[in-house]
UniProtKB/TrEMBL annotation:
Residues 36-208 form the Metallo-beta-lactamase domain. It holds the Pfam family WHD_BLACT. This is MBL fold metallo-hydrolase.
Length: 290
């Protein structure tokens, strides 16, 4: 199990992993957000793009504006609409006049109990970016990469001038992404990982955790991890039908109890993906191998 590093964390303090990128950590640590959501400012000229403004916390919005300094914020981009990513977009737009853009608004008829951060229903983009569409400013160009799976509306953003990719929650160095049906889809997630593996990005900047310096190596490992989880599930089912809770003590040894429901949702996403491929079947609350 991954441990959250000890405090102090650089919450609210601008950090520059490279000349065109400034990172500001939001004050929202949790077992699902690690040390908090990382907001990125892109640019070093007259204007900046802000990626994932994070929660609607005055302290964090002040830190973003302080990091921008005299530069104008010209675009506010969101990778997806979980509540640790996009609620800060509207108040930041009010304070700067910058348009909110990026992922589409997500409307779910039955949100239900969620284990990771739930969806932000206040998000209203002025512009939805399609796959391959770009936004630019002085000395920077960000191109949207459609990467559904963690959520159906998830985008990554490629910084063309430096070869960096802002991966939101799709790829993180500290943890695998939580896939929560019905909006989260394991098949889409695996296809999106394949899509990133085919690219030649130099570094990933995730919304949580450290930069990923060897992106393709990590993506290959993540694909292998998901295949190994499928094999585990089929091995468990070889001993007979199981309900979701029964998988967890077998597959996740020493798991933090706070993450048990998230683990169940991940197994559920795998089971749905296996069911679509006619490898498992469900009857009520129990699953069986075919």
């Amino acid at each position: 199990m991954v441990q959250i590093p000890p405090r102090p964390w650089p919450t609210g303090t601008p950090e520059k992993p490279e000349p065109l990128v400034t990172r500001v950590l939001a004050p929202n640590p949790s077992p699902y957000t690690f040390t908090g959501t990382q907001t990125y400012l892109v640019g070093e000229g007259a204007d900046r793009a802000v990626i994932d403004p994070g929660p609607d916390e005055a302290e964090h919005l002040d830190a973003i504006l302080a990091a921008a300094g005299d530069a104008r914020i010209s675009a506010i981009l969101c990778t997806h609409t979980h509540r640790d990513h996009s609620p800060g977009a509207a108040p930041l737009a009010e304070r700067t006049g910058a348009p909110v853009m990026g992922c589409a608004k997500l409307v779910i008829a039955d949100n239900g109990p969620r284990l990771d951060e739930s969806f932000d229903t206040t998000y209203e983009p002025e512009r939805v970016l399609s796959d391959g569409e770009a936004v630019s400013g002085e000395g920077w160009t960000l191109r949207a990469i459609h990467t559904p799976g963690h959520t159906s509306n998830h985008l990554c953003f490629a910084l063309e001038e430096s070869g960096a990719l802002f991966t939101g929650d799709h790829v993180m160095g500290w943890s695998t992404s939580v896939i929560v049906p019905p909006d989260g889809d394991m098949g889409d997630y695996l296809e999106s990982l394949d899509k990133l593996y085919s690219r030649e990005d130099r570094v990933y900047y995730p919304a949580h955790g450290a930069p990923v310096e060897k992106p393709r190596q990590l993506v290959r490992s993540m694909l292998g991890h998901r295949r190994q989880r499928e094999r585990q599930i089929l091995k468990v089912l070889a001993d007979g039908p199981r309900s979701l809770p029964e998988f967890i003590p077998i597959m996740y040894k020493g798991l933090d109890p706070r993450l048990e429901k998230a683990a169940q949702m991940s197994v559920h996403a795998h089971l749905i993906h296996l069911e679509r491929r006619a490898m498992v079947n469900r009857s009520g609350e129990r699953w069986t191998a075919l």
